[in-house]
Amino acid sequence: MNKIFLALALVLVVGFSVAYWKMGGLKAPTIAVETTTQPYFLAGRYYEGPANDEAFGDLTRQAYQLRKEGKLRGDFGNIFYNSPETSRDAAKVFVGIVVADTASQQLPADYRYRTFAAGQKVVHAQIDASYLVAPDKLYSGIKEYAAANKLTLQNVYLERFPEKGEPEVLAVVK
């Protein structure tokens, strides 16, 4: 009986390890300091409150649904206006879709545009990994890079999760 449990545990550990590896969990992000050359436009809604609140989840699901139905074209994205460490308790975030411009699509009711401006010095991190593991890898990579290079972050972050391509985070440098 103990051998069966040991074999089952081993199979589960190997299975989870392979799944984590396949999702890109063992990859490191690519990180560089750069200046944004063009603005990023987001169509969405602002949320302030706990990140685990149902209202935040509803906004995220609504953005995904609008994209899936073709009512908005672009990549899922957010602009966080506070540090990722504190956003679990008190997130300040604009949730929506990164769109190409502010003129070619009609906004859904209650949606507004926000701009992540061009000309900002940012720490840009991207990774070839699933969106399930990417945020933790990207944010920890940005934090380590900023500390190693003595950069002070402004606590404004743009997240972009393309349907195809690498998830990325841009963190504004003071």
Write the layout of secondary structure elements.
Blueprint: H1 2-22, E1 30-35, E2 40-49, H2 54-68, E3 75-80, H3 87-90, E4 91-99, E5 112-116, E6 121-126, H4 134-148, E7 153-161, E8 168-173
Antiparallel strand pairs: 1-6, 2-4, 2-5, 3-4, 3-7, 6-8, 7-8
Characterise this structure.
- The protein is of the alpha+beta class and 174 residues long.
- Helix content is 32%, strand content 33%.
- The protein contains four helices and eight strands.
- An eight-stranded antiparallel beta sheet has the order 1-6-8-7-3-4-2-5.
- The longest helix is centred in the N-terminal third of the chain and has 21 residues.
- It is globular and about 65 Å long.
- About 3% of the residues have low confidence.
Largest sheet, strands/sense/barrel: 8 strands, antiparallel
* E-strand count: 8
Name the assembly state.
single chain
Which strands sit side by side, in order, in the main sheet?
1-6-8-7-3-4-2-5
- Relative helix content: 25-40%
* Gross morphology: globular
pLDDT < 50 runs, ≥5 residues:
18-22
- Kindly name the structural category: alpha+beta
Series of secondary-structure elements, N-terminal to C-terminal: HEEHEHEEEHEE
Quick recap:
The protein has 4 helices and 8 strands; from the N terminus they run αββαβαβββαββ.
Task: List the keywords.
single chain, 174 residues, alpha+beta, 8-stranded antiparallel beta sheet, 4 helices, 32% helix
